[in-house]
Every structure is written in C-alpha cells, then in structure tokens.
Amino acid sequence: MTGPLDPFETDERKALRASARGFAEREIQPDLDAWELDGVIPAELAKKAAGAGLLGVGYPEAVGGEGGSVIDAMVLAEGLMAGGASTGSLAALLTHNVSLPHMVRVGTPDQVARFVKPALAGEKVGSLGVTEADVGSDLAATRTTARRDGDHYVVNGAKMFITSGARADFVTTLVRTGGPGPKGLSILVVESGTPGFSVSRKLNKMGWLCSDTAELAFTDCRVPAANLVGREGDGFGLLMHQLMSERLMLAIQACAIAQRSLDLTVDHVRSRVTFGQPLISRQVVQHKLVEMHQRIDVARTYARAVTARFAGGEQVTAETCLAKIAAADACSFVVDQAAQLHGSMGFMRETEIERHYRDARVFRIGGGASEPLADWAARMLGYHE
C-alpha cells in the first residue's frame, strides 16, 4: 500500500525546486561572498528572479504573481538554499513575502497597482515595519502613532531591525491609529521620499550580511489615507495571520540551511583524510551525521505537516510556534556540528559552513523569539493559569 503523496513532493513542486536550485547556482552562489562584503544584494537580482518566474511564486496571477500557494513559496526557498543561496540572500530577495500579503488580502486596486505588482516584477522593494526597539515580540504595545488629519495620517515614531529597510521603496508599517492594545493598530504603507520619513542608520549584524537591516524614523510624516491597508483597527489581525506564514517560512528555511550544511559536511568528511583514513570511516563521525539527519528530518516533517494544514485553512497558531522553535533548535545543532566536523576550515570566512553558522543564529530570534513563542503556544494549548 502507498500513503498519501507528500504535497511538497508533487511533480510540479519537484520541478519548481529544481528550477530554483538552478537559479541559485547560476545567479546567487557565485557572487554571494562579494555581496556579503558589500552588505547588499544587487537590484537586478530581483528582476532576474521575476524574469525566471520565481519572484511571484505563491501569489495570484491577478496581482502579478505566478500562482500557487504558500507551499510553493516554501518549495522555492528549499530549492534556492539547495543551490547555495544563503538565508540572508533569501531575506533580501524575498522581503516581499512579509510586506505584500496584507495588501494582497484586503488592499485596494490602487495599492495592488502601486505596490504589489511592481514588487512582484522586481521593480520595487518593499519591507515590513513592525518591530520597535523596546517592544520586541509584544506587538500590541506598538507605540508608533498615525493621527488622521484630513486626507492624510501624520505618523510619528520609530522602527528597529527592519529587513531591507535601507533600500525599500515602501514600508508596510504597523501604526497606532486608536487606543491602547491590539484593537488600536492599523497598517499603513509609507513610501520612501515622504517628508519626515528617514533611515536613521543601517545596522551591522552577526549574520545575514547581504541583507540590509535598518532603523527607521517617522517625524510628522504625512502619509495619504489612501495608503491605509484594510480598515482602521485591522492591523493586528492582518499581521497575526501573516506571522503564521512567516514563521512557517522561517522554519522551512531553517531546515533547508541545516540540510545544506549536512550535505556539505558529508562531502567534506568523505574527502578529508586523517591518519590515513577518510573522516567518514570513524564511528563517532557517522553517529554525528546520523543525528544531524534525524533532527533535520523530524523538524522538517513537522514543519511541512503544519504548513499543509495552514494552507488548508486550519487554525494552527500553536503548532506554527512549535514548528519554528523545533526547526530553529535543529538548525542550531546541525550547523554547530557541521562547523565542528569541518575543523579549522569551519572557522574560516572562505567556507560556506561558516556563513551558515552565523546566519542560523537569527532563527531563534526573528519572527518571534523562541521564548515568547513558547508562551504563546502554552496559552493556545491551555497550559496556563
């Protein structure tokens, strides 16, 4: 008897994964070290990805996408990582996955025309402005305000740790239009060049070096009311729905970076000879590889299963948190073991493993740190007073 087909392994998705892998091998991996030094990916990379039919994967054709579901977007990420991309390059290239979905769901035709379609064509860069310096994962405590003044909102506040914030053409921004708590939050699109909106500074990071990260400031910034996404007070709900997708994407990416690290390590221990024998001949090395494989497989199987349930419309808030935590932990273990098995070369900037080791650290923080996600899962599961 055969079981149900894994939705991640249909013929079409295998072809998509292979296409994405080929794109990464041709267009990303050869120049990635230089982009890491530059601190940014080239603008033309997005246009190349759009031309290859990759940038719009998971978005309806009506808004300029290539069709498909969230599963296709995950498969795309897996393929890019298998081809030698870094999660930093994915964060930079695919920032539209966090800046556009709110507009795709409830945006006006004008917003789709001005922001969504150009971003999916690789012509504009969008970022998501949510995190604030002293707020972190407590999004309901957001302090950036947007006061209605005629046909505009006047925005004041600041955002921190914003991916692609330094080069963004627009920022999908969480603002407080009402009273305290989640019901007072809305989403407003702020365009670069708007008076009162500025990039305070570009931030230096441990990893994701080719993905620019910025601190943003809003000082009496007048934004057209037409840039409000949905209705006033819808912001928190829109964001929570999108955060589930984002966390699952991070879980899939964490598993992908772990798999890439394992593959590179297997190649290394087969070719590295010590004391007259290849490293892979040692039982301790074999056991390490087995545990790396096991942790990846368990985390990936769970993350894929939760993703399939999410794509099917199920309520999986707690499971999404758990999938991200499990994938981040598995990734941390695998990249650490990979660096160890590479020996001194695992400590060198010239090796891909060293980059993955640094990049992996963000998975236990970005998209919600593991600790508050565990707290949130406990509430969802009824494990609280």
UniProtKB/TrEMBL annotation:
Q: Which organism is it from?
A: [Mycobacterium] nativiensis
Keywords associated with the record: FAD, Flavoprotein, Oxidoreductase
Residue stretches making up the Acyl-CoA oxidase/dehydrogenase middle domain: 128-221
Q: Does the keyword Flavoprotein apply?
A: yes
- Domain Acyl-CoA dehydrogenase/oxidase N-terminal spans what residues? 10-123
Q: Which cofactor does it need?
A: FAD
Could you tell me what this protein is called? Acyl-CoA dehydrogenase family protein
Annotated coiled-coil positions are none
Q: List the taxonomic lineage.
A: Bacteria, Bacillati, Actinomycetota, Actinomycetes, Mycobacteriales
Q: Where is the Acyl-CoA dehydrogenase/oxidase C-terminal domain?
A: 233-379
Q: Which PANTHER family match?
A: ACYL-COA DEHYDROGENASE, ISOVALERYL-COA DEHYDROGENASE, MITOCHONDRIAL-RELATED
Task: Tell me its family.
Answer: Belongs to the acyl-CoA dehydrogenase family.
Does this UniProt record's set of keywords contain GTP-binding? no
